[in-house]
User: Which sequence fits this backbone?
């Protein structure tokens, strides 16, 4: 593939992170072609090669997917979800509120409430970091500290949140 198709050899990070970074840097010129559902958290054009299906992910859909995956886990990557950590089965009703939330801070707070933990819970933060697809080189996911609202165009606006502690 390197010689015949011009593929890039990725070292120091997973190939899916490299794909996500490229999509974020060249938003209008790329299409993520994969069967890997994890990349559904990355905005832009996508193509599932097994299903011969093209689709678009807007920024709000992408961030919602990430937080839903934080609840469900990812058995392929051996990242346990709510059921493993709390003994509660993940019901559709647990995921439904995610579809109504429009800012990342609210999504994070909701996931923490589902896990019955604090916003600074180290175990949940580590799980989120394992699931997160990087948007830029060297990025490490951090819990949100600002409210970022997404409009229909995918443009976000932020406002700082005062610390209560």
Assistant:
């Amino acid at each position: 593939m390197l010689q015949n198709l011009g593929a890039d050899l990725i070292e120091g990070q997973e190939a899916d992170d490299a794909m996500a970074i490229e999509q974020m840097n060249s938003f209008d010129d790329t299409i993520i072609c994969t069967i890997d559902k994890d990349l559904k958290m990355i905005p832009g054009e996508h193509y599932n090669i097994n299903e011969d299906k093209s689709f678009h992910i807007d920024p709000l859909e992408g961030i919602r997917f990430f937080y839903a995956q934080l609840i469900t886990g990812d058995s392929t990557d051996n990242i346990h979800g709510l059921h493993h950590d709390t003994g509660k089965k993940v019901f559709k009703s647990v995921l439904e509120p995610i579809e109504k939330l429009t800012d990342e801070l609210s999504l994070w707070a909701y996931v923490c409430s589902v896990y019955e933990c604090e916003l600074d819970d180290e175990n949940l933060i580590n799980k989120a970091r394992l699931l997160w697809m990087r948007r830029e080189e060297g990025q490490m996911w951090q819990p949100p500290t600002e409210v970022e609202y997404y409009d229909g165009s995918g443009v976000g606006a932020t406002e700082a949140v005062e610390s209560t502690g």
Q: What stands out?
A: Residues 59-72 form the longest helix (14 residues). Strands lie at 31-33, 44-48, 53-57, 146-150, 156-160. Residues 15-160 form one domain.
